[in-house]
Specification:
single chain, about 170 residues, alpha+beta, Aminopeptidase, about 30% strand, globular, binds coenzyme A, GNAT_dom
Length: about 170
Amino acid sequence: MSATGPTTTSIPTTADGAAMWEIVSASPFLDVNSRYAYALWCRDFAATSIVARLGDRVVGFVTGYVRPDQPDTLFVWQVAVDEAARGKRAASTMLDDLVVRVGVPYLETTVTDDNAASLAMFAGLAKRTGTTMERTELFGESELGTEHDPEYFYRIGPMDLKTLTRG
Ligand SMILES: CC(C)(COP(=O)(O)OP(=O)(O)OC[C@H]1O[C@@H](n2cnc3c(N)ncnc32)[C@H](O)[C@@H]1OP(=O)(O)O)[C@@H](O)C(=O)NCCC(=O)NCCS
């Protein structure tokens, strides 16, 4: 666990799934999955996910998994911070703490082109770890249909994780 200002980060528990679902339900940009999906994720992928708390309240989370066929790569699925807690580095702190904990040099994710905050957040991680972020189109209309914006695929790395280790 680490603390930056009043926010602390920790490994999620199944009890955190409901708060994650509530944050996503109120967030723009993200697909809302079922409460069941978040609880199950917290059971089976806690080691590659993280939550941020303000006191006892979950105010943000990152869900991720290590790619089964590429074990040097953490895929980040969703990142969300409660609106009232945004802009205070909660997301950056979660990403930093998570990549240090998982300890792999590459991170992949997808972002829609209109999500400036998310793009800045991942670009910041690349910068802090002394690396670059490459972009290609992953899922377009044939996979996502016409109702969903294209998801662009980003690969960050190799990350120098030593730059994130706090003394
Ligand atoms: C994206 C999100 C998680 C960022 O959370 P946050 O805690 O506010 O982010 P941070 O305070 O750590 O800021 C990270 C970087 O993004 C920048 N940023 C934050 N909000 C921004 C905005 N609205 N527009 C542009 N840049 C923004 C910050 O300046 C910072 O940049 P820096 O590292 O170069 O200084 C949050 O805005 C959110 O939950 N959005 C809705 C859900 C979403 O879009 N999730 C990502 C989907 S892939």
